[in-house]
Amino acid sequence: MELKTIKDVDVKGKRVFLRVDFNVSMNGDEIADDFRIKAALKTIDYLIDNDAKLVIATHLGRPEGRDAHFSTKKLAMRLKEYIGRDIKFVPECIGSYVRSAVDNLQPKEVIMLENLRFYSEEEKNDEQFASELASLADIYVNDAFSVCHRTHASVSAITKHLPSYSGFLLDNEISVLSSIYNHPDKPLVIAIGGAKAQTKVEVIKRFFDKADHILVGGVMANVILEASGRSIGKSAINGDISKELEGVDLSLPNLHIPVDVVIAKEVSENAKTKVVGIGAVDEDSIILDIGPETVALFSEIVKDAKTVVWNGPLGYSEIKTFARGTDTFAKSLCKSNAYKIIGGGDSITALDKIGMLDNIDFVSTGGGAMLEFLAGNKMPGIEPLMASKQ
To answer: Fewest CB atoms within 10 Å of the CB: 264, 289, 365, 385?
Structure first.
């Protein structure tokens, strides 16, 4: 899959609307993790070095209306530290004030707009809002892979109004993830966990014939255990996905579900835990982690892999009591000589927490987008960039 990238267009003196995803982790009003900001620097530096007039836009969090806590001003200040030049922050996304600021932009200068989600029109993919955003620029560049599965105005509708291109981050994400399906080094291992199950079923189904091993933990494992007739007690399954499982052979030898699990009566740091086999979960208990036998099985499989893709923790890793399975698996993964790809904020957090994120070969900036892409679903933010390829 090839996209039209910023190298395919002359940006000198042009106003470039750059959609990034700086939806970073926050600790109060402080930035806790600026991984996504750093990931976009190659594109930003290229546009500045090639004399573009740069208008940067992003969302932050899920604000309800205008909320100063979610202002992108703090993101502009952090970006300024990395690129070493002034950034003009504009506390709007559309209107005369923004227009005036953009009209005064000179080559190599940078403006950052306010949070796109301060406008309800953004998530509605509103055509008028997209048109007003587009009027600020001559060229549109999407470098926000993590929102490319969203039909939002600054991702989808805007491409109808401007020549549209991919940034380096987005292009690299597509290149790496495409290779996983089209020509991976084998054995290929897909490890799936986390809380959301629906898209993960689609990934599992699509990779049944491609992956040598599919390892399943988290809520997805609960779903498969229940579908296989095992009791899961009061464990979470996040909705009915029985339709998605129709026709799926859950007994295939390359599909590995837990053989033992950690259970508790409550989700708390001080909960009394017990390890049981998958057939021994009583009706009052909750499955909150994979057990030691499962960890050993999964670790043995990744040891001999050539490619491993991991999305989502294998247990309720937000609480230390139930993070042991995920942490031990992460350490085993990092010891593997496989080409290692991870996606999803919780997986990244798990590796960062044990100081092993640098052992990963490719860290995707998008968890949900990564799953949608691997599932083979059309991506509203990517399709227009392919269509513009000449």
So the answer is: 264
Tens digit of pLDDT for each residue in 279-291? 899 999 999 999 9
Return the H-helix or E-strand segment holding 351.
helix 345-353
Same domain, 123 and 236: no
- Residue 271 domain flag: yes
Within a domain: 372 = no
- Secondary structure (H, E, C), 53-106: EEEEECCCCCCCCCCHHHCCHHHHHHHHHHHCCCEEEECCCCCHHHHHHHHCCC
Total of domains in the chain: 2
Establish whether the linkage from the previous residue to 187 is cis, with ω within 30° of 0: yes
Domain that holds residue 140: 6-173+379-387
* 208 shares a domain with 89: no
d(CA 168, CA 198): 30
Q: Are 343 and 367 in contact (CB under 8 A)?
A: yes
- The two structure tokens encoding residue 201: 């079923």
Q: What is the pLDDT of residues 108-167, one digit of tens each?
A: 999 999 999 999 999 999 999 999 999 999 999 999 999 999 999 999 999 999 999 999
Residues 110 and 206 reside in one and the same domain: no
